[in-house]
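Could you please consider the sequence and fold appended to this message?
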Amino acid sequence: MIELTNLTKKYADLVAVDNLNLLVPRGEIFGFIGPNGAGKTTTIKIMGGINAPTSGTVMICGIDIGTHPEQAKRKIGFIPDRPYLYEKLTGMEFLRFTADLYDVDDKTFSWKAEEKLKMFSLLDWSDELIESYSHGMKQRLVMSAALLHDPEVIIVDEPMVGLDPVAIKMVKELFKYLSAEGVTIFMSTHTLKVAEDICHRIGIIHKGSLIATGTPEDLIHKAQASQADLEDVFIELTEEKGSLSFKGKSE
């Protein structure tokens, strides 16, 4: 459902994404983790059609997003790390605007909008201006909008930012449900426990390169850490590549 081939993004002399190759099959929840500046958000923006790669291709459900961007984007529900919204619209008006972009008909929109707003505990706020929403409410509204057109692929950057524990649990359960229904989810996160809890596979990116992929168990084996969690593996693998030490050692 998602295929990245030789994906590269350069900014002058900086290589933000370096020859990335990855295949994420239908129904998989794939976690994408790495240190700050590793290339996670750059990769996600290319996958969502926001930025163009320097070279390489992104295929969404067999559609090249570079040559057929509109067709590919209709398959995607995109959830950025920051909720960019039209704050002078109400929550319902924003959903209507989003639905129009995807040609969701009026009848379908009516029940789906109510369903998503209820799911994300926003129904009572649907006629309030978005500028009155908290950050967490805005994030939940973006998620509601991203699911309106029943996307086959969800691309999400830091999905739990600004959410309270109840909302985090709900989103985790929602992603598991969507995965079981065949939706592919590509999730960038710094919350390693979330990745460990719900992801079928995890990829670690560092300095633009994918340095490891696999299940949490695979990664523990690769790091040769028999008694470890994903946080230990992450530190071990990125330290080997010259990142900062987080173990409190003095030099």
